[in-house]
């Protein structure tokens, strides 16, 4: 596979990327009876862009006066944070977030969590691996809980870079160096080669208990009050869109879709989802495209729960 010098130079910058975690939060928030909120951004985004999570933070604060809203920032700067969505392994991100939230007294009594796109599965991993981070309601907006098999669009990346990523994922997703390089490889789920996925996926197959059943993952996940999953009906980023509701392609097929209740994870109860309070929400529009009214009507009520 031939690559342009520009793409190689671009990628080489990120082969070694130190991770630091900081929190962008509402320092002036007054005391409130509501639980604080933690948000985790998705691919091609950052904690604090005014046109994305920055505006969501303001909307929540306007609807729930006095509430504390924290938007996770991975690294020391917005540039670091943006790059982390592509080049910092989710296992490392989850570990750092666990340490930071667990040591912060404002979250000692619990918090609600909102994950945007891949931030949805990252927060679920946090719930499963970090019981000291006491998530009450977990809200996944467009998260890919059974992974993706296809990368039709790469938000905010050039066409050449996106095409390179697509080729890497199609032909070498489960090579160790690709798993270590590219975040999206860690939740790439090839239904035509399930054995390779289970053996080679360094993140998703683990948190989905695909190789062996980790009882701690089940017990910790079941501490959630609610697990809310939002599916965007006209999504052109996530393939298949059903992954947002824990559905996926049938093994051996890239066309037939199995909903959650027909999946191996559910039938074998590998995550304890059968006995969990799951909430399935639909949203018209493309990936993460929603109106303020939709967010107020469908998400804000879960953020007001104790």
Question: Care to give the gist of this entry?
Answer:
The protein is an alpha/beta fold and 306 residues long. The chain has helices at 5-12, 53-63, 78-87, 90-102, 118-129, 159-172, 176-181, 194-200, 204-207, 215-221, 264-267, 292-298, 300-303; strands at 21-25, 37-40, 69-74, 111-116, 135-141, 226-232, 248-249, 257-258, 278-283. The chain contains 13 helices and 9 strands.
Task: Kindly list the characteristics that best describe this protein.
306 residues, alpha/beta, disordered N terminus, globular, 7-stranded mixed β-sheet, single chain
Folded structure, characterized:
- The protein is α/β, with parallel strands linked by helices.
- The protein contains 13 helices and 9 strands.
- It has helices spanning about 5-10, 55-65, 80-85, 90-100, 120-130, 160-170, 175-180, 195-200, 205, 215-220, 265, 290-300, 300-305, and strands spanning about 20-25, 35-40, 70-75, 110-115, 135-140, 225-230, 250, 255-260, 280-285.
- Strands 1-3-2-4-5-6-9 form a 7-stranded mixed β-sheet, sandwiched between helices. A two-stranded antiparallel sheet has the order 7-8.
- Helix 4 (about 90-100) packs across helix 5 (about 120-130) and helix 5 packs across helix 10.
- It is globular and about 50 Å long.
